[in-house]
């Protein structure tokens, strides 16, 4: 029997409030190496807040975030060093408009990780070639479609070989005809063994690609389970009600 996969991310009792409103109510979650976990749930359920908490861009009020056993929620931690270990892709690309596509992809490798420009650009061109965008290396982001920009943003996030990739509704700002090319890229990353925690409203994609699906509702984990079981035979009534709404 094979040894259990190493735990990359552990969340214990994560709480976050904005004023009187508690957005995260004691979230517990573990993600193993090479596992793909999909966070689903209605708008305002806390998905994006949870991802930002993992990346230390959102402070937490209580709980512990462990990255490979290290308490990265400790206020004494070097935040930049931690973020260098995690890739994060937002809904709205966030490419630097004044930098070329290649410079966008290689910036973190050069500035944060100290990779020589020649090596960073070699790696960057390989990544752009893998998504069919090497010809746009010297172009600025406004020359690309939304789907192309989002794929570049994902390549930028993985250029530094992060231990964990966070995807925050990366298709929600795209026109429907562009969604497929971004999902195809995420599928290929999952098949290559990338450890991914993604918030998504693409239920079919979550069912087909995720190893595990977690339903958040009002800042609480309602149900978590293997994707096939989660969609075919959900245990909780709230899960069934949510799935019936999004399946319409």
Automatic annotation (TrEMBL):
According to the entry, every stretch annotated as the ABC transporter domain falls at: 9-243
InterPro entries, from UniProt? Answer: AAA+_ATPase, ABC_ATPase_HisP-typ, ABC_transporter-like_ATP-bd, MetN_ABC_transporter-like, P-loop_NTPase
Q: Which UniProt keywords apply?
A: Amino-acid transport, ATP-binding, Cell membrane, Membrane, Nucleotide-binding, Transport
**What is the membrane topology here?**
Peripheral membrane protein
Q: What is its main location?
A: membrane
Molecular-function GO terms, alphabetical: ABC-type amino acid transporter activity; ATP binding; ATP hydrolysis activity
Chain coiled-coil ranges: none
- Note one Pfam family from the annotation: ABC_tran
In terms of superkingdom, the source organism counts as Bacteria
- Single GO cellular component annotation? plasma membrane
Q: Where in the cell is it found?
A: Cell membrane
Protein family: Belongs to the ABC transporter superfamily.
- Provide the protein name: Amino acid ABC transporter ATP-binding protein
Q: Source species, please?
A: Agromyces tardus
